[in-house]
Amino acid sequence: MLSIRNLTKSYGKTVANNNISFDVGEGEAAVLLGPNGAGKSTLIKSVAGLLRYSGNIEICGYDNRSPEARALIGYVPEIPAVYSLLTVTEHIEFILRAYKVQDRSFADELMERFELTDKRDKLGKELSKGMQQKLSICCALAYSPRIVIFDEPMVGLDPHAIKELKNLISELKSRGASILISTHMIDSIEGFWDTAHILMNGSLAATMHSGGVPESAQKLEDLFFEITEQHGS
């Protein structure tokens, strides 16, 4: 489980995240929504342990910056960060060895589902942005992390990859993983989100639960525009 308490992050006099608290339970997909500059990516990077912050973030009871927590986190950044001189196969092999994964069947399945099998020998620098994004997702999930963090994961993906990613998120939920997704595209999360947190100017403006109701996506969209247009006026 992911627990965030009183998270505050400032860049000089600019407060990017202001005293944010929420949990993401086992088998739950939580979404961060908000316009550009709302503080979504800062929060995601703080949870991933990439930024200094004040407050407390725990991964399954461990401080998120501890080795124990890092072994449980899978992180897909907004901009793919692949190694230019490693092949696709070498990327996957590096991850499996780093996390001491003996059974590579799930990693092979991921490569097949994201159409990377025929790109095994391609170098990172030879891949398109979309292919780099697919590789980034495969690397983040290959070791079956307990907490998965996505920052704008659908950007740059083709329709087939978007479908596979949505299916994977549903499968991860069924296995008990806690999932946190940052996005500004509400339609991209339709069908699998459980809790949505709307950020405005670094603060939590509203939280909504889907309750498994199909119409909740439309209600979420209405709430989102009500809040963002109110703040924008």
Can you tell me about this structure?
The protein is globular and about 50 Å long. The protein folds into 2 domains: 156 residues, P-loop containing nucleotide triphosphate hydrolases (Rossmann fold, 3-Layer(aba) Sandwich); 63 residues, no CATH class. It contains 7 helices and 10 strands. 33% of the residues lie in helices and 27% in strands. The mean pLDDT is 92. The N and C termini lie far apart (37 Å). It is α/β, with parallel strands linked by helices and 233 residues long.
| Structural class label | alpha/beta
- The CATH superfamily of the largest domain is P-loop containing nucleotide triphosphate hydrolases
What is the tally of beta strands?
Answer: 10
Radius of gyration, whole Å: 18 Å
Number of helices: 7
Biggest β-sheet, characterized? 6 strands, mixed
What's the rounded overall pLDDT mean? 92
Unreliable residue runs: none
Residues in helix, % = 25-40%
The level-1 CATH class of the largest domain: Alpha Beta
- What fold name goes in the CATH topology slot of the largest domain? Rossmann fold
In total, how many domains does the architecture comprise?
A: 2
Termini, distance in Å? 37 Å
Major β-sheet strand ordering: 6-7-8-3-9-10
CATH architecture descriptor name of the largest domain: 3-Layer(aba) Sandwich
Strand content: 25-35%
Order of helical and strand elements: EEEHEEHEHHHEHEEEH
Shape: globular
Oligomer: single chain
